Amino acid sequence: MVKNTIAIDAMGGDNAPKSVIAGLAISSVRNPGVEYIVYGDENKLLPLLKKRDNLKKVVKVVHVDDWIRAGEKASKALRRAKTTSMGQAIAAVTNREAGAIVSAGNSGALLAMSIFGLRKLSGISRPALAAVMPTVSGEIVALDLGANIDCSSQNLIDFSVMGIVFAKNVLGKPNPRLAFLNVGVEENKGGTIIQEASSAMEESHFSKYYAGYAEGNQIINGNFDVIVCDGFSGNIMLKTAEGTAKLCSEYLKQVFSSSILGKISFAIGRSSFIGLRKKLDPRKHNGAVLLGLNGIVVKSHGGADSISFAHAVDLATEMSVGNYNELIKKELNNLKSIH
Amino acid sequence: MVKNTIAIDAMGGDNAPKSVIAGLAISSVRNPGVEYIVYGDENKLLPLLKKRDNLKKVVKVVHVDDWIRAGEKASKALRRAKTTSMGQAIAAVTNREAGAIVSAGNSGALLAMSIFGLRKLSGISRPALAAVMPTVSGEIVALDLGANIDCSSQNLIDFSVMGIVFAKNVLGKPNPRLAFLNVGVEENKGGTIIQEASSAMEESHFSKYYAGYAEGNQIINGNFDVIVCDGFSGNIMLKTAEGTAKLCSEYLKQVFSSSILGKISFAIGRSSFIGLRKKLDPRKHNGAVLLGLNGIVVKSHGGADSISFAHAVDLATEMSVGNYNELIKKELNNLKSIH
Q1: Is the separation of the CB atoms in A135 and A221 below 8 Å?
Q2: I need a surface site. Which of A64, A289, A312, B286 has the fewest CB within 10 A?
Q3: CA distance, residue B102 to nearest chain A CA (Å)
Q4: How crowded is residue B223: how many other Cβ atoms within 10 Å of its Cβ?
Q5: ipTM entry
Q6: Sign of CA dihedral B193, B195, B199, B204
Q7: Which among B89, B35, B80, B82 has a CA at the least distance from the CA of B62?
Q8: Pairing of strands A296-299, B296-299
Q9: Rounded to an integer, what distance in angstroms lies between the CA atom of residue B163 and that of residue B170?
Q10: What confidence tens digit (pLDDT) does each residue in A252-305 have?
Q11: What distance in Å separates residue B234's CA from the closest CA in chain A?
């Protein structure tokens, strides 16, 4: 079945194709029954696959000797859709040979090629980039994280539908609470676009999930499951959170290395700190999904190692096997029958 | 002299007027020669001042028995400018009795009343809210943090001028490096407004300070001294950083309390952790400044304690005594003579 097949761009990312194949080996153990079509240079791929017994039965290699480079412009990449590993992997989803595609390659190219190749889902005004972020008590899905710099109120509503379906089916929250990212929680905060979208949510089929506005410091307090915003502020939010977490760990490292007591303290608490590092491990949240297209597109971090890439493949698998796009279509129909 | 006098709204904030007077006592020791006009209920203020010998000679109390409440709307507050402690403290700056005003009261009311009462500096298209944030290697000033939801390219250029003067004179960086907050560092990132402002900066008198775009994860890496953005994304950035820092310290607390070894580790590293907590202490960065008006307006956090409020008063003092507004006027003239 198509939904059990994932297309893989094996040539994108700093550590490709090695970490791609190693990542597939990890994900495959966690997802028995799933098959992969792997696009890339077979001279590099076949020796890597030789060592992976568990992949032999589930991987089909399609030889492509060209690939999109990291610095390449999206407009130029678009013209090379037919000849590159990224383009052919996306085409596998377009042709319904696979339900999802994963790439660690050039983000701009992947977005442009995916939108062009897969087309928008009927009823969705714009696709959005979504990712899972950690909170005090669990996880949250946030979108858009950079696919759309400017957004209309209709875009925000569509993002909300996609976010709610994601939270229900991927995060396993039957009654997700959704908030719009804003500069305050009072009704009159933010611009007219966000206020219009907010009124529309309150009057919609989704009002039961809609919790109003959330400020930047509230997104991680565990009170929400979905955060919706325009791609500009979403990107700022995601990257500021990443940068601040890094700053904190930098400060902590300084504390432990600045004195003998600090070093002893670290040695004694070592196992707890390793636990903390595991908890904060960004590799567990690797994989941003481009939602709203006829097929699931997952962008892995360009610097992904095997553990990281495996999480991106897990996410693509879960969404494809779980029929995510069919669920969105159903919710959109529900929304329209009310309005 | 006016610039050595600071007007204080003693009735704003959760802990007013107690933490206000205690904060003044701390700041006054650090800033000898500075005087304060304190607006508020003298029945509450005089007993508090009685205990503070070092304030007796430098504080003048002006009795006002009304004040702006926390939840009050800005439009309603504006009508009560003449009868409230906040309104009268701002008027002291308008009338040139003081060079700066500090309030821990209602933010929206303070912004509206200040803009209405003090008027914009000539040559500045819009005032902006600025604050100092910690980085890996020092401090950075960021603006706008929420005074303007939408910004034109001219607004961003004006914020840049104000930010550069701030970095030079308040942060003590003779050659500040300024970046616009954006979703990528390439020239074509962001919308047309930010791109226009970027081109204008490159061709301006300030090109030597202009370092291009910075992403959310780069603001704290120590490579920049000034971050300029619209008030919506700036507010998201600031609050996301606050929230994430809190999440990290929450996780850390869990590590130290989750096991006996964690507790022992904390006990041994105690002094280092206290050092870290001091370093991260948000009270040291209390005080957001509304730049671009005829007078300095400093908003203290509403929940400020005395240490926190003292930092806000320090900031107001430094900017008033240092003739910050005159320096901005000079830089604006330089800018115009080039264009």
Answers
A1: yes
A2: A64
A3: 22
A4: 15
A5: 0.89
A6: positive
A7: B89
A8: unpaired
A9: 10
A10: 788 778 778 888 888 887 777 777 777 777 788 899 999 999 999 999 999 999
A11: 9
**Residue B58: pLDDT band with limits 50, 70, 90:** very high
Domains of chain B: 1-122+292-322 (3.40.718.10), 125-285 (3.40.718.10)
Chain A hits for B191, Cβ within 8 Å: 149-150, 232
Q: What is the pLDDT of residue A336?
A: 62
> Which chain B residues are within 8 Å of A259, Cβ to Cβ?
271-272
Which residue in the set A146, A233, A279 is minimally distant from B233, CB to CB?
A233
Interface test with A, best of B111, B228, B247 (most A CBs within 10 A): B247
Which one of B216, B232, B255 has the shortest CB-CB distance to A243? Answer: B216
Interface A-B, measured as beta-carbon pairs within 8 A, has a size of: 184
Q: What pLDDT shows up at residue A179?
A: 98
Q: Which residues of A touch B262 (CB under 8 A)?
A: 269, 272
pLDDT tens digit string along B114-164?
999 999 999 899 999 999 998 888 899 999 999 999 999 999 999 999 999
Half-sphere exposure of A76 (CA within 13 A, CB side): 8
How many angstroms separate the CA atoms of A217 and A237, rounded?
A: 10
Q: Is the pLDDT of residue B338 over 80?
A: no
